């Protein structure tokens, strides 16, 4: 199972979701079954490392942050991943715009499996990385229950 987390810039929410889900996967002993990566819909931050707010909130919760560099989603990613997970409705439109189509129904939003599906606010604009972390954690936990 290969999962690709997506957000606008690939420096705040999607790398946070990548590292939170990797952590949960490791704790569940599923590293050999589930691979997690992340990418952007935009080109704004290509090549950049995760935002210091994302790095800080991950560190505060004891979650290792790797050396991810932002990259943009491509059409070729569609064949490489089983699930392509956006953070909000704008991400969803942009993902479908890049991919052109979703014949296998791979495109979802991170909180789709939550009891309260909702968009994940962008801390690039809100400055509130802690609220984003709580939403990302809920999304990753419910997603992992769904796939495992
Ligand atoms: P993200 O946040 O989509 O959660 O990574 C953003 C990061 C950068 C920008 C926008 C959103 N930007 O405009 O550069």
What does this entry look like structurally?
This protein is 42% helix and 13% strand. The protein contains six helices and four strands. It has a four-stranded parallel sheet with strand order 2-1-3-4, with helices on both faces. It is globular. Bound molecules: 4-nitrophenyl phosphate. The site of 4-nitrophenyl phosphate has 11 residues, from loops.
Number of strands: 4
Share of residues in strands: 5-15%
The CATH class is Alpha Beta
Mind summarizing the main beta sheet? Answer: 4 strands, parallel
Distinct ligand kinds:
4-nitrophenyl phosphate
Mean pLDDT: 98
The total count of helices amounts to 6
CATH architecture grouping: 3-Layer(aba) Sandwich
What is the assigned CATH homologous superfamily? Answer: Response regulator
Overall geometric form: globular
Ends: how far apart?
A: 10 Å
TL;DR of this structure?
The chain is of the alpha/beta class. The chain is 42% helix and 13% strand.
Topology:
Layout: E1 2-7, H1 13-27, E2 35-40, H2 52-60, H3 77-80, E3 83-86, H4 89-99, E4 107-109, H5 123-126, H6 129-147
Parallel strand pairs: 1-2, 1-3, 3-4
Bound molecules: 4-nitrophenyl phosphate (4NP).
